[in-house]
Amino acid sequence: MMCAIHAAARGDRVLLIDHAKAPGEKIRISGGGRCNFTNTGATARNFISANPHFAKSALGRYTPRDFIAMVDRHGIPWHEKTLGQLFCDNSAKDIIAMLVGEMRKAGAELRLGTVLESIVRQEDGFAVTLGGEGAASVACRQFVVACGGKSIPKMGATGLGYRIAEQFGLAVTETRAGLVPLTFGEDVLAGFREIAGVAADARVSCGKTSFDEALLFTHRGLSGPAILQISSYWRERQPVRVAFLPGRDLLAELKASKRENGRRTIVNALGELLPKRLAAHLSALHGWSGTMGEASDRRLSAIAATLQGWDLFPIGTEGYRTAEVTLGGVDTAGLDSRTMEAKSVAGLYFIGEVVDVTGWLGGYNFQWAWSSGWAAGTAIAERTGR
Question: What is the reported pTM?
């Protein structure tokens, strides 16, 4: 929709096809129905790609400020949550209505319930065959692939964009689920089920990458913002390290608790620092019994070290079913970073999630959609406008 708005800005005919029955379905369900539509701190460093520099051009030329300005022009109320995340006050439907309205104003046509049956390269563009409710044969000079990745297949997500890329000889990097809960073997999961629903602030790390946000224990494993973030960096057989109460001198706090009340049990002392159910689970798991007064400084040091360095070994993720994004995609080496056009196929563009550019949790992937859509749309308008 963002690309269509800007591609139609100079009067050229633009047709947007969508196999869904309603526009912007992923927008509608995002952010708990309130759409985390951008992040004020979005830069290329918040994205994962084989080429970490590729996203700089589009993100630098169409920034969060530019999208916020559009939201403000439409009088859509919004608020900022933590870490620069911006949400609609009312509903994600406000963002969809804004984009549909901008398309209508620009003269772009939206055809829903329509599927791509074939696309063939011709000397002056492409011959496109459409099926479904909008069945037709269409000729176009430019063809933009903006159909996202494989995440949330129940909403119609497929690998169509990757197949189109491969049809025209473009490379596609390995794809996998990102921003997704982690799963564990039954030996670990049995304990997690006892504390399902418990959330705690933590620093979650994998390799050299860390995120300080909440994690959530579930019946299937671990979720919550910190886990979703680190899942994009985790690979099979790697450990994930959990550090509760990050940035605090936990040993000093345990020693202080011992001085204040040595008769307090270790589990009760930990229950004043962590959710009580979590403290009980960890105490049982690691055998932390007895009173604080009985615990030597060496034992308290070991407890603190475990709480701030708990290594866990996931066996997998929940997959595309619940993943918010798809990692990998159309290889950026084959695309022009300023226009998003395929270097080897004039008039063919790839934008958004279908490209090997994946953002962190918190509005970054929407900003990439707006920025890459703007980049392709303005490039098309400049080439074909009159």
Answer: 0.95
